[in-house]
Every structure is written in structure tokens, then in C-alpha cells.
Amino acid sequence: MDNKEYSVPMTELKVLILDDNNLTARAIANVAEFIGLSAKVTSDFQSFLNILNEWQPQYLIVDLIMPDMDGVEVLGELGKMQVEAQLIITSGAGQQLLHAAARSAGAHGLNVLGILPKPFNPKAFRDLINAESNNTADNTFGRQLRAENQINTLTVTELEQAIDARDIYLVYQPKVSCISGALTGFEALARWHHPEKGFISPEKFIPLAEQHNLIDRLTLQVFEQALPFLNQLQDADTVQGIQSRGLLLSVNISAASLKNLYLFKQIELLCKSNNVKPDQLILELTETAAMDDPVMSLDILTRLRLRGFRLSIDDFGTGFSSMLALVRMPFSEVKVDKTFVMTSGDSRESRLVIKAIIELAHSLNMQVAAEGIEDNEALELLRNMGCDQAQGYFIGRPMLADAFIEWSKQSSEHIDSHRIKHLHGLGLLDSEPEQRYDRLTKLCTRLFNVDISLISLIDENRQWIKSSQGFSQRQTERSIAFCNQTISQEEIFIVPDTLLDEQYVNNIMVTSAPYVRFYAGCPIRAKSGAKLGALCLKHSEPREFSIKDKLLLKQLTEMVEEEIDYNPFLDEDKLTGLLNREAFERRAQKLITIFAPHQIPITMFYFDLNNYKRIIEAHGISAGDEALIHFSRLLLETFTDTELVARLVDDEFVVLCICELKGAPLETLAEAVKQHNSSVSPHLNIQYTVGTACSQSMLNVDLQSLYMYADSDLYDHKSP
């Protein structure tokens, strides 16, 4: 934390407090005096005005609830007087009313520094005063009003000269995954340092550019600087230590620029010349900009999406047209307004709004980003609510290019160190193959019809293969692993054709066996969000990967993650080593949920050992146990590629397959049982009945229905 957190200038700073509760007023005054302010207190409005005129304080603290005149009337009178002091509004009436009063004060032209809910937090008051005195206050009302007052001191000629001289420069603010903290992109923000007037706020020069038709030139200059920077980040030889593939660049687009299709054509050309794909750009528009002319906006935004650009609706939730804009317009991201984020810790209303926005956006298949995150509490809240991206001073301040690169390297190193530590604690590295993972890679190989399926774990300098089909090595160097790139992504990473990809065309896995031409991988996460590795597919021919394919791979990756979380010793039937009933049903439900909607056949075989009880009665429990163990072994040997084999209870077994199996495996099992019976005493022979159920013949597919159909078929086959 900055040592100057509560420092104040040497000139006398004064605060005047209007509050009818003398105890509260005195408490505020004590805090003010503790940090070096002079304070005066009154409960009478006329006295308040007299002190204001005579003493000229820099700060005013006004309670909304007064006996003779309510706070809103006080604010109105102060507005008429054109009071320039910084205003803090306090009340015990609730956050919603406080924010409404603050907006009202801003509309009256007052400089609103912030709100102070009762019972007040002394630190919150100190932070407000300290932030303002150090010119770092991030208050919406105050900043807007200061910008309006300052704009008259800046001339159009000065701005035009700055644009001509390319004096407008960029800073970059990182956006990270709420879950893992990994860098996902950054926002490019325009800045201007005037040679005489010093730093000019964007809230000052951007409205001026909009009013005088300079905004398109300014916007183009932003892209002319930001796109080469993104291209630089993508060059692994130039920038070491940053997993930059897939990073997204966000740029604000003015409502005034939306109609200028030529501007977007120029942006497209800049993308091409800088080796940046349009889908790496997020064009941020405020909801007001999108809804000023909804018909025109719909046409233009649709055309931009068709060209590949991503679209974000910025400051979402602050306008009345938000819902309509979100549903009608082709946005790919929603950006929660920082007003809600910054008040989420104290305001139940803000938390409800954020949660509603996230749920609505996700229901429309949109990503959600939140800005204005200033502490870990806000980040945790957003993470728990399911927010996708995070942005704010707690993550990283806007930085110049070199500082951004250094920040990115340090962040990447920190995340990777945490990730590796978590991976080592799971006991998966250098472990023996396990059927629970192998069944999933076998399933992937069959469903996607690929040469290779892997569950890959990325260690510090190597890739460890926990499970593989079609690939014999247990480990490779991390530097050549496709999955190393996958763990830097938030979603599925795809290389449709490695020979057309600069990063992989010379990879040893491409130029020699197994001659990989296609790759798709989905990050495997721990519960903490740390990325452990990837479930990946490789093939010797290029191919496309459909939306359906992506969904299936993601769902199968979730099953891998669940296996990592499960304790295999609790899932195992102690006698036979098969899955027990609870473990089977948990996995079966998941498989049915994944595959039934895609109409992928699901087959269940339900087995009953007919003579199990007779064996026990004649030869004891140990003989019965031996029969169960032998039958379990025969099931595993027969259904080698099967997803789930379990013992349900006593002498009942079940097999669940993700395919429509005919009679072949049952014939194989019958022959295996016949050979087994010929090698043991007749009294230990295994006799069984099997019932079959297939989802293809069912109207509604669920586990209970499969049980019922298979059980019914089993009893139909029982000997009379």
C-alpha cells in the first residue's frame, strides 16, 4: 500500500458538516481532524450557509434527513448558489437513495465527491478525502462535472494540432480471467499530455473531438498504435514470457463514429497489415450509442459482426434501453458498469443488478466483463457470481506499452508458479495409468474419430501424459506441447491446419511422427481455477471443429475435472474393483446429460448371476465372492472400450456404452464365460441373464428409464 495513503496538502483544508445527529457529526469531525482537516459542525441550515460563506470550506458533508429541510432541498439550494466545494452525501436511508441523491446533486451542478452510508466507516471517509486530495478520485459524478467545467479551457485548435502531431498516446489496461487470473486481453485508452496545460483528461478531449468531427481521426490513430502493439505481443521471438496467442484488444467506439463505415474498412485494412484477425478486436459501444437509432445500429453492428469483429456493450445497466439493446443487438460481450462494481461491497441493490446481468448475458451466450474492480472482495464476489473477465486498478492500472509487457510477464510467472504448485499437490504426475481416465480418452478417440486423444498435464519443463490413445510417450518437452498453449486460453484452443499456422508449422510433432495436422484442446481446471493441462485431440489430417464438437469436448473435459476431484478409493467396489453403484450413477447421469441431446446412442446392459445364491448355499460366501470376481474380470475383458462397468448390488452388474452395440460383445462374453466354466469345477460355473436397453428406442432418455427397459428385458430372458 502507498505510504501516502492518508497524506494531505500543507495548505489548510476545511470541512463543514450539516447533520442533526450531533454524535455522528462529531465522530465525522474527529476523523477529519485526525487526518489534518479543520472541521465545523452545525445542525441548522441557516447557520450552515453562514459558515459556508464566511469560512469557505473545501469539503461539505450533508445529511439527507434533516428536521427542518430535507437534504434534497439543501442540495437544490447549494446548486443555485453554484457552490464549488467537494460534496459528500451521508444518510442511513440506504445505498439506493444515496445514489439517487448523488445523481440529483450532480444534475444541480455540484461537485459530488462521494457518498457515506451510516453507520459510516472512518476508513471510507478517509479514502474519499485522500483520493480527492491526491487527484485520484474515481467518482463518476465528480469526474463528469469537472470535465464539463474544464472543457471550456481547451480549444479545438489545440486538439486538432495534437492529433496532427500525433501527441495522443495510448495506455493499456489488462483484462484477466475471473477464474484463473490469466491475462485474456487489454483495453487501449487514449491519453494526452499538453506541453503547457499538462495532463488532459480523456473526459475532456474526447467529447470535444466528438463535437467537432475529430473523433474518427482520433479513433483511427488509436488503432494505428494499438494494432502494432498487439502484433508485437504475438511475436514470441520479440516478447518472451507472455502467452499472448488469443489476446483480445478492446477499443471504445464513439456513437458519432458508428455511421462511418469507411472508418471500419480502414480498421480492417490495419488489421490485415498488422497480422491481426478481426475477431481479436472488441469494439466497445455504450448502450446509448447502440440505441440512439436502433434500426441503423442493428444494421451496422450486424455487418461488423459478419466481418468478424467482437462487440461489447459498455457501461451496461446505466440506461433504460439496456435490456432491449442486449436482446436485439449482436453483442458478444457485456461490460458491467463500474458504478455497480465499486458499490457491490456495501450495496445489495448493486449485487442484485450484477447477478442479473451475468445470468441474462450467459443465457444469451455472451461473455461478461466487469470494470472498476478495486479490491479482492469485489473480485471474489464477481468470481462467485460467474463473471468471466475482470478489469480495474486491483488487477492493473492503465500502463504504457513497456510497463504493460513487464506487468504481463510478472503476472504470467506468478500464475504459472501457483498452477505448478497446485498440480504437484494432486499426485497425478508420474502416476500409473488409470481406467477412469483411459475410458474418457478412448471415448474421445471414438466420438471425434481422431488418431490421438490425450489427457496432458503441464509441469514446469515438461508435458506429462496421464492418459493417451494413439500416442505411446508418457512425457514430452513443454516447449513443443500444443497443450502448453492451451493452458493460456480460457476456451478451447484449435489449430485447424498446423501447416498453415506460423507457430506450429516447424513443430517437431508436425514435421515428424505423429505428423499432427489438426489439434483441439480444452483446458483442464482445478476447483481453484488453476489450469492443470488439457484434454486434447490430434489428427494427421486438417479438419474443421464445429460448435457441436466444441461443446462435446468441453463437457468431456468437465468429466476429467470431476475425476480429478473424486477419490477413486471411495468409488470402487471393494470386492471386484469395478465402480460401485453411487460412482456409476454419478458418471452415468453426466454421460446421459451430455450425449442424449445430441442423439448419440446410449446402450445399457444389465446382468444378473442366476446361480449366485446357490453357489453360496452350497459352497459358502468365499465361493460366491470368487464367482463375482471372475465375472467382473470377464466383463472388463469383453467391454475393453466401454465407458462404465459397475457392480450395482450383490449379483447385479451393469455396463453403459456410448454407442449402439448389437449382439457382438454379448456373444464374446458368452464365449468367455463358456471357456471359464470349462476350466473350473461344475459347481462354480457362472450362469447369467442379460437385459439390454438402447436410447434409440426411447422417447425420453434418462438413467431411470434405461434401468427400467434393461430390467424388463432381463426378466423377459429369464428361464421360466
UniProtKB/TrEMBL annotation:
<dbReference type="GO" id="GO:0000160">
    <property type="term" value="P:phosphorelay signal transduction system"/>
</dbReference>
<keyword id="KW-0808">Transferase</keyword>
<dbReference type="Pfam" id="PF01590">
    <property type="entry name" value="GAF"/>
</dbReference>
<dbReference type="GO" id="GO:0016301">
    <property type="term" value="F:kinase activity"/>
</dbReference>
<feature type="domain" description="Response regulatory">
    <location>
        <begin position="14"/>
        <end position="133"/>
    </location>
</feature>
<dbReference type="InterPro" id="IPR000160">
    <property type="entry name" value="GGDEF_dom"/>
</dbReference>
<keyword id="KW-0418">Kinase</keyword>
<dbReference type="InterPro" id="IPR035919">
    <property type="entry name" value="EAL_sf"/>
</dbReference>
<dbReference type="InterPro" id="IPR043128">
    <property type="entry name" value="Rev_trsase/Diguanyl_cyclase"/>
</dbReference>
<dbReference type="InterPro" id="IPR011006">
    <property type="entry name" value="CheY-like_superfamily"/>
</dbReference>
<dbReference type="Pfam" id="PF00563">
    <property type="entry name" value="EAL"/>
</dbReference>
<feature type="domain" description="EAL">
    <location>
        <begin position="152"/>
        <end position="412"/>
    </location>
</feature>
<dbReference type="InterPro" id="IPR003018">
    <property type="entry name" value="GAF"/>
</dbReference>
<dbReference type="Pfam" id="PF00990">
    <property type="entry name" value="GGDEF"/>
</dbReference>
<feature type="modified residue" description="4-aspartylphosphate">
    <location>
        <position position="63"/>
    </location>
</feature>
<dbReference type="InterPro" id="IPR050706">
    <property type="entry name" value="Cyclic-di-GMP_PDE-like"/>
</dbReference>
<dbReference type="InterPro" id="IPR029787">
    <property type="entry name" value="Nucleotide_cyclase"/>
</dbReference>
<dbReference type="InterPro" id="IPR029016">
    <property type="entry name" value="GAF-like_dom_sf"/>
</dbReference>
<dbReference type="GO" id="GO:0071111">
    <property type="term" value="F:cyclic-guanylate-specific phosphodiesterase activity"/>
</dbReference>
<dbReference type="InterPro" id="IPR001789">
    <property type="entry name" value="Sig_transdc_resp-reg_receiver"/>
</dbReference>
<dbReference type="Pfam" id="PF00072">
    <property type="entry name" value="Response_reg"/>
</dbReference>
<feature type="domain" description="GGDEF">
    <location>
        <begin position="600"/>
        <end position="720"/>
    </location>
</feature>
<keyword id="KW-0597">Phosphoprotein</keyword>
<protein>
    <submittedName>
        <fullName>Phytochrome-like protein cph2</fullName>
    </submittedName>
</protein>
<dbReference type="InterPro" id="IPR001633">
    <property type="entry name" value="EAL_dom"/>
</dbReference>
